[in-house]
Amino acid sequence: MNLSINKKTLLFIFIAFIFSIAVRLIWVYQFNGTEQFKFNNQFMINTNDGYFWAEGARDIISGISQENDRSPITTAASNLTAFIAKILPFSFESIIFYMPAFFASLVVIPIILIGRSIGKLEVGFIAALLASIAWSYYNRTMVGYYDTDLLNIVFPTILLWSLMWAIKTRENKYLIFTALDIIAYRWWYPQSYALEFAFFGLILLYVFYQYMKKQDFIYNLTLLTFMMFAMMQVDGYIRFLIVIILFALVKLKNELFSKYLYYIFGLSIVLFIFTGGFDPIWGKLKGYVFKDHITVVGEDLKLHYYTVMQTIREAGAISFETFANRISGHTVTFIFSIIGYIWMSIRYPIMLLALPMIGLGFLANGIFGLIPSGGLRFTIYAIPPLALGIAFLIVELVKLVNIKENKLIYYSVISLLTIAILIPNIKHAYDYKVPTVFTQNEVQVLDKLKTTASREDYVVGWWDYGYPIRYYADVKTLSDGGKHSGSVNFPTSFVLTHTQEEASKMLRFDVEYTEKKFNLDKSDSDRNRTNIANMTLDFEFKDTNNFLTALQTDIKIPKKTRDIYLYLPNRMMNIYPTVSLFSNIDLMTGKKGNIPFFYKSNKFNENKEFIDLGRGIKIDKKSSKLIIGNKKIKIGKFIKTFYDKKGKLKKQVQTISKKSNLNVIYMSNYKQFLLVDNSVLNSTYFQLFVLENYNNTLFEPTILTPLVKVYKLKV
After folding, report:
1. What are phi and psi of 470, to 5 degrees?
2. Alpha helix (H) ranges present in 289-406?
3. Residue 348 DSSP symbol
4. 618-673 pLDDT, tens per residue?
5. Is 405 exposed, middle or buried (0-12, 13-18, 19+ CB in 10 A)?
6. How many helices (DSSP H) and strands (DSSP E) are in the chain?
7. Measuring CA to CA, which residue among 350, 303, 178 is closest to residue 247?
8. pLDDT for 379-435, tens place per residue?
9. CA distance linking residue 3 with residue 118, whole number of Å
10. What is the DSSP string of 598-615?
11. What is the CA radius of gyration of the chain?
């Protein structure tokens, strides 16, 4: 049966779409019986940021949102989710869990259409199969990965297809289609301007080439004009109205529009610059590419803070193998993908329009000596064009063998080669067993806390847990995935890593100063300073170190306006050294402090003489000494913790040497050893979570479980 090109296109789209979703359902099959990944009998999501959009959607549906609670009720992701939740008869939890699988799979549509645009429909189909499940794309769009990534590649791939057809056909409908896609892309993902501008720049170069060659460039200049107006840094409704008016002029008064095209194009450039079009592009490049370890903030007090970007894995350096695997699934596939893309671009120069996406994807690996690695998050952008590259290579190489006359052999060889490039990616999806953000037991703590704390109360924890805390407990937080600069993290880090006396005062200071800022005018200097700077200056200190030292005294703390809860999870144990970095710094000079000693071992072996903790560290049972490499160090305290039958924490403390600064903690129920110095042992996190040694004049326990402990501040 011979199908028409339209029916064949639709069939390919349907097959690729179902394939993409089916691969993502592997995770559901694997963890369907894991109750700890469910809450209220529904799967929970597996990305922290997802709880941000979920909070916004929840508040849109309920109609309840308070000023300064940071709920994203105006964002595209939250509004789309709320709309879907209102019209579909599924639970809210199921919707946010499965949304990534459905929407991310839509990327197969523009990829197949791009293949069709160059007369290679089968190339588009093979590329769609690969791109839809490629490592990096799968990781960021799997079930449960509820984030803006679910459409972040769909929109630019549609834009690529639209620009290709616009330049190829010169039809006016693609002018408005391109502009509307840019507006929609910006609505969905405000950081889209860098890629949009890259597309614009590439077409501008082409227009300049046409001008030099005395070719007709009027249509492409018109296309650039539409793009520029759509890219301005003004409200989306205004840009929408402008491009609609422009399109009406092109349709109804084309000669008049062409007559004043140069002036209109010039106006679009001026408005783009005037509205701050370049500012966000530079801001993102500075944040992700030109990264500094320390940032200097403020004019009154030039305080030095540790840069959070250095601790985010997705912005960290990656190896070439990881880079290649995340784009194509295998290094060999990646190399052949580049060869295929080059060959395809020589055959069809229109494919050069994909260079901005490839360039942004390659930014993940950086440019040696010029630009450092941008981190793995960028790799997803290179996936669609390079998937087209390997697909083109497969089809063209098979054609060179000259077996097309025998359709069975021809399609069998293409199928085998396609399966070969898909297998590493399917295997990765099978092996990529990502847990949910929190377990059921952890969420139950927050759900219980919701009945105790009010919406105006603060639950303070490390920024990684900010979004889920707000979602499940419906409270305020000091930091989260979108508010975690060095100046914001310093107070929380200080609270967790210093003594209870210092921590209690810093908690009250930071919360009350945060609330105070909400009522200040934007031009007020106090609002523009960091909280630590305001605290320092309000107490007439010229050196922030003097203010921090004063927290050990009877310094007057701000008046209490709300309750504060301290959220201490066991999972923070793994990142304690990272947490300590943010307050282990001299804010006046930027000089880093001495690194506290912290070592955790979950894999240890014990015999009659030693307890081997790994990495060359042992405990000599006879001499009660630590063996670290070639050194033998006396143990200060040996502490064993365990839970009794009633679930109460018990401690056995043995002081071995008062002169030693190193201590051993054996958390028997967790089956883990901790080696820490006195500064870590005396920190608020260790005293309250590990040992439950709380100062009852400063803190009172609210919820105590082995996984999470919540304390209420009493001052």
Report:
1. -65, -40
2. 320-328, 331-347, 355-362, 383-400
3. -
4. 999 989 899 998 899 999 999 999 999 999 999 999 999 999 999 999 999 999 99
5. exposed
6. 32, 18
7. 178
8. 999 999 999 999 999 999 998 887 767 788 888 999 999 999 999 999 999 999 999
9. 19
10. EEEES--EE-SSEEEEET
11. 29
Q: How many CA atoms lie within 13 A of 384 on its CB side?
A: 31
Predicted confidence (pLDDT) per residue in 87-137, tens digit:
999 999 999 999 999 999 999 999 999 999 999 999 999 999 999 999 999
- The answer to whether 650 and 690 are in contact (CB under 8 A) is no
Q: Running DSSP on this structure, what letter comes out for residue 70?
A: -
Encoding tokens for residue 70? 């940071």
Tell me the CB-side half-sphere exposure of residue 569, using CA atoms within 13 A. Answer: 23
Positive or negative, the Cα torsion across 256, 262, 267, 269?
A: positive
pLDDT at residue 40, as a whole number: 93
Tokens of 81: 């989710």
Q: Token pair of 273, please?
A: 């610059």
Asked whether the beta carbons of 124 and 171 are under 8 A apart, the reply is no
Which pLDDT score is estimated for 286? 54
How far is the C-alpha of 395 from the C-alpha of 400, rounded, in Å? Answer: 9
The enclosing H or E element of 673 equals strand 672-677
Identify whether the C-beta of residue 133 lies closer than 8 Å to the C-beta of residue 384: no
User: What is the set of domains in the chain, with CATH numbers?
Assistant: 5-44+90-431 (no CATH), 440-581 (3.40.1380.40), 598-708 (no CATH)
Residue 279 CA neighbour count, 13 Å, CB half: 9
Instruction: Pull the structure tokens for residue 89.
Output: 């008869």
Please state the length of the chain: 715
Cα(197)–Cα(279) distance, integer angstroms: 12
- The count of other CB atoms within 10 Å of the CB of residue 300 is 13
Q: Are strands 672-677 and 598-601 parallel, antiparallel or unpaired?
A: antiparallel
5 vs 658: CA distance, rounded Å: 83
E strand or H helix that includes residue 649? strand 649-655
Q: What is the secondary structure of 39-63 as a DSSP string?
A: ETTEEPPS-TTHHHHHHHHHHHHHT
Dig out the tokens for 589 from the structure. Answer: 């000079």
Token pair of 20, please? 């993409």
How many CA atoms are closer than 13 Å to the CA of 689, on its beta-carbon side?
24
Q: For residue 290, what is the DSSP state?
A: S
**What span, in angstroms and rounded, lies between the C-alpha atoms of 413 and 419?**
10
This model's pTM is above 0.85? yes
